[in-house]
Amino acid sequence: MNSKFIYSFILICLCFIGNGHAQANLLNARVPQDIGKINEKQIVANDETPLSYGYVDDRDILWSKTVWEIIDLNERINFPYYYPTDTTNLGPDRRSLFYVLRENIKKGNIKEVYSDEYFTEKMTYADIQEKLFARKLKNSSIEKLNAGEEITDQDYRTASLGAAEIKQYKIKGTWYVDKRQGELKYRLLGIAPCAPDVSLKLEDTSEGDQEGPLPLFWVWFPDARITLNNSTVFNNRNSSQPITFDHMLNSRRFNSVIYKEENVYEDRSVNEYIYEDALQQLLESERIKSQIRDFEQDLWNN
Questions:
Q1: Of residues 29 and 292, more confidently modeled
Q2: Percentage of residues in the chain with pLDDT exceeding 70?
């Protein structure tokens, strides 16, 4: 038998061995309601925990640098984190990253949620809801209020934020050199969905007059890994083999721009020392990336 044929046959088999949640029991379903139902053996086989991080002693860290990055959801490569925004006709296995974070915070599966990027002030789900919902008294109801009449819910204009309003994600992580392995590695520490202020949706302002996206909350990433490992991303190349959010983020399958690094100037961001010049800010981001990448190369050249 031709060796090329054998190799191709093995690859095809590997593609169909795993059963992704998106297509579970699809070919055995007698009625549409059976799609997604899996038997006990499949449940055991699919019970995978996220790959645990190895212990890193502080003495093994030869060099490190913490950076903050922006993942712009307008870029095509970052679409898996944004879609789907409308889940009306989709199964429960197809959800956006924001939906997964919000719902699991609500259920208590993700507990380490903070209001700042240094993880000092914790937030509850009620605190998050205040940033996702706003209401304002209608102009026509102000006279009603002044007259002492009873105000009802119909007298208010309301606005809310959902997955469609998330414009970007901010992430915080540390690059470090493990001297035992002589390798540059990355450890993701936190992630924050960003959206415009919900109250601005009730104001009569144009989109250009609104502020840029602001972090809604910061999630301590190690605490969210189990949840993100149970939530999958649609795989364009093979819909029967979805990828987990945990895998996507840990393997850095996204495009990002560094907007801040830890420094002596109170960790000031790039736009604080390069004003109103998007090109120079982008070049500064690339300079920081090159500085991190070149450090590992210099270890072997010196």
A1: 292
A2: 82
